[in-house]
Amino acid sequence: MGSKGETLPPPGSNQTYVKVSALNGGWVTLPERLFITNADPEALKTVPSMCFLIQRPRPGGGPPERIVFDLGIKRDMSQYAAGMQDHLSKRQPITNLPDTKASLEEGGLDPAKDVDYVILSHTHWDHIGMPADYPNSKFVLGSGTLHTVKHGAPHYPPEMFEKDPLPLDRSTEFPPGPDSPGKDLACATSQQTSHQWKPISTLKHAIDFFGDGSVYIIDAPGHLQGHVNLLARLGPEKWVYLGGDCCHDSRIITGEKEIAMYPDAHGEMRSVHSNLPVARTTIAMIQDFVKTNGDNVEWIIAHDKGWADNNQERFFPGKL
């Protein structure tokens, strides 16, 4: 498995399928020139920070096991670190309600009781949300996430993270991806999951989260240490790929645009990704995966305004 051109595996006997619903995670305004090439230098675009609910039938019956993938923007902006406030001022207007908690409650779920796992694609401010809303959920993170929260990352120093934003007693990290940079940053104080990375289709490094071929975590490095994507099996020939912040504009995946470069405060050229060459490799991987699997895979990135505008009926309690 994993060779170029190989499609996704067919369903097994008694295959488990999951339901996936989009969740509101707030809206943020982005200057297009920082994200895509050949942009209008004055153009601003207010985009969603989408999150997702994944529901898997529980073996033996009972309520389904539930994953919330990403938590969006904090509804209490004062909880962001002091070092983050200047950045937030440059992303206005920001809408932080409805958030994931309100979205779940609107569909009849209590985030304090009904969510088994919170998996974060990464811990940038518009994805980390309000972890305290999920006091009984297990948090599962990409390798090195807890190190990054404590020590910072390129373009994202530690003062931009609020202190202890994640519940350490309920947080584990996936093992390092074999090709990921910063493999030595796996947090020594956190327990690592026992999952193993294996290929699926053209994706080199995937974790079968439940062990039944229904939900896969995909190593997707480059944007921030520990960045992961999620691939879910919705039906016999129906999948969805949740790309997080692999890029911030769908036209990068389609090849119409490329990642922008721009000067930082010191006149050095940078992008929105902490490791641009690796981020480009991740995008190429996703492009190859989408091309190989055609109409069997729907792909969604977190800030895709077009998808959100055209798919309101697929937000919870609706489904993909």
From TrEMBL:
GO terms for molecular function: hydrolase activity; metal ion binding. Its cofactor is Zn(2+). Coiled coil: none annotated. The keyword Metal-binding applies. The keyword Hydrolase applies. InterPro entries: MBL_superfamily_lactonases (IPR051013), RibonucZ/Hydroxyglut_hydro (IPR036866). Keywords: Hydrolase, Metal-binding, Zinc. Belongs to the metallo-beta-lactamase superfamily. This is Metallo-beta-lactamase domain-containing protein.
